[in-house]
Amino acid sequence: MTTRIIRFLTQIVITFVLPAQLAFGGLIGDGGMPGQFLNYGASPRTLALGKSFTGLADDAEAVYYNPGGLGQLLSQDLKLAHSSLYGGNRMEYLGYALPTKQFGTFGITFLNYNSSPIDVRDEENDIYAPATYMQNCYIFSYAYNPVRFFGFGLNFKVITENFARFNDVALGGDLGILLQAPRPFNFGIVAQNLLKPSITMVEVEEKYPIILRFGTAVKLFSDRVVVVADLVTNEAIWQDTFNKFDQLKPHFGIEFELLPRVLTHRFGYDLNELSVGLGVKKEWGKISLGVDYALLLHHQSNFRLPLSHKLGLFLQFGGFRTWIDATPRIFSPTPEDKRNVLWMDLRIISRRSVKRWQVTIKNNLGEVVRTFSGWEAPPLRMAWDGLDDAGRMVSDGKYDYEIIIVDEHEESLRFSGPLTTIKTKGPEGKIEVERK
Fold it and tell me: If you ran DSSP here, which 8-state letter would residue 17 be given?
C-alpha cells in the first residue's frame, strides 16, 4: 500500500505541479491588496497543503477558506496557530466550530496580524516612537446541509485596523458552497468579501476586493491520500486594464497518512512557496489532540528569503461520536456457562438515524476474531462469550474493538479502542513434595 501511494504522489507532481510552474511562473504578486492577510493561510495544515483547502474544508479552518464545508464536521473542533511572517511580522489564529443535530454548524474565528515596529517620522525627519501596524478580524459563521451532497455557509466579518493613532472598523461577508459529488470527489466555490469591507485610514479609503476561490479534493486509498487543488482570482479579472491570465493563482496540495489516524505528511505548492508539513494526532477515548507543523520555502525569490516555520495545535471533542464501554476489563470465558459473558454497551450520538452498523473484535495482531453487524439501530447492549466466528475459544491476550455506524446520508462514525483482556489461565504456583 505504501509503495503504491509513493508512486501515485510522484506521478501527481510530474503531471500537475511542474506544468503549473511553467504556465503560471511569471505572475505578479498581490501582497499589497487590501485585506490580503485573509488569504495568507491560517494554520500549518493548510499552509503545508499550498493554501488549497476550498474543496476539502473539513475542520474549523473551513471558516477561513470555505464556510460551506463546516457542515461536514462531526465533532467540536478547536484550532490554534502561530505564524512567523517575512520581515519580522507575525499572525495568530484561533478557530472553533460547533456542529449541532438540527440547526447546522456554527463557527467563530479570530485572526491577528501584527507588523514589526515601524519608525514614524515627521516633516522634519524627526523620529517619533516606533509604531506597529495591526489588523484584527472576527469571523462569525453558519453552515447548513439541506441535502447530503450540498452544503452552504455564510461568514460575517468584523475587521479592525490600527496604525499609530489612526484606526477604523469595517464589516464584510462571505458565501461558500461545498458539493460532495460521488466519491471520491468534492468541489468548493467561495465568494469572499461579497459584502465588501471598507477601511479609511488617514482619509484614504480602501475597499477589500471580491475574491473568488474554486477548489476540488480527491480522496483515495481508503481516504489515506487526499489531493487538493484551488484556483483563486479576484474582481480585477473583469477589468480590461489587467491581463486576465495574470489574475489566476493556482494552489496544489497532497496529504497522506503514514500511520492511519496518527501520523500525516503533507506537501504543497503555490506561485510563491513550496511547503512541507507533518501532523501528529493522539486519541484519548473521546478526545483527540494533535500538533501540526509546516515549513515554507520561498521559491519565487530563488530561495533567498529565509525558511518560514509554522506551528499549530488542534483539539477535537464532543459532537457526534460512537464508542463502547465493556465489562469486565479482565474476562475468563467459559462457553458452558451462558451467564459468563463480556457485556458491551454501545454509545451512539449520531446526527441522523442509523442505516447500518458493524462491530469487530480484534486480537493483539489486528486479526478480526468476531464480527457483529446489522441494519437500522444497533442494540444498546451486546454480549460476547469469548468465541470467534467459527465457534472456537479465542486465545489469551488483549483485545480491541472497532465500531462503525453509517447513517441514512451515508455519513459514517468510526471509533476503535481497547475492549478487554482474555485470561483463562490460573495464577502460577509451585508444588512442594515432602519426603517421609
Answer: I
Per-residue cell: 138:
472576527
- How many residues are given for the chain? 436
Cβ count near 161 (within 10 Å): 22
Q: What span, in angstroms and rounded, lies between the C-alpha atoms of 166 and 332?
A: 74
- Per the structure block, which three cell numbers stand in for 20? 503549473
Nearby residues of 252 by Cβ (< 8 Å), 6 or more positions away: 16, 17, 20, 50, 52, 228, 229, 230, 268, 269, 270
Q: Which of 49, 130, 64, 53 is nearest to 96 (CA)?
A: 64
Grid cell at residue 269: 505548492
Topology (CATH) of 2-317: Porin (2.40.160)
Q: Which residues pair with 145 in a beta bridge?
A: none
- pLDDT for the residue 428: 61
| Portions of the chain given CATH number 2.40.160.60 | 2-317
Q: Are strands 342-349 and 211-220 parallel, antiparallel or unpaired?
A: unpaired
C-alpha closest to that of 277 among 302, 308, 305: 308
Q: Is 153 exposed, middle or buried (0-12, 13-18, 19+ CB in 10 A)?
A: buried
Domain with CATH 2.60.40.1930 in the chain: 321-422
Picking from 267, 263, 192, the residue whose alpha carbon sits closest to that of residue 234 is: 192
What pLDDT is recorded for position 210? 92
Let me know the angle formed at the C-alpha of 313 by 307 and 317, rounded to the nearest 5 degrees.
160
List pLDDT tens digits, range 162-182: 887 788 999 999 999 999 887
Question: Which residue numbers in the chain have pLDDT < 50?
Answer: 2, 5-28
Distance separating alpha carbons of residues 368 and 274, to the nearest angstrom: 42
Closest CA to 288 of 415, 432, 136: 415
Residue 232, number of CB atoms within 10 A of its CB = 23
CA end-to-end span of the chain:
68
Q: Which pTM does this prediction carry?
A: 0.80
Which one, of 416, 426, 344, 324, lies nearest residue 385 by Cα? 344
Residue type at 344 in one-letter notation: M
Burial of 234 from C-beta contacts in 10 A (0-12 / 13-18 / 19+): buried
Retrieve residue 335's grid coordinates.
462457553
Q: Which of 7, 52, 66 is nearest to 266 (CA)?
A: 52
Architecture per CATH, 321-422: Sandwich (2.60)
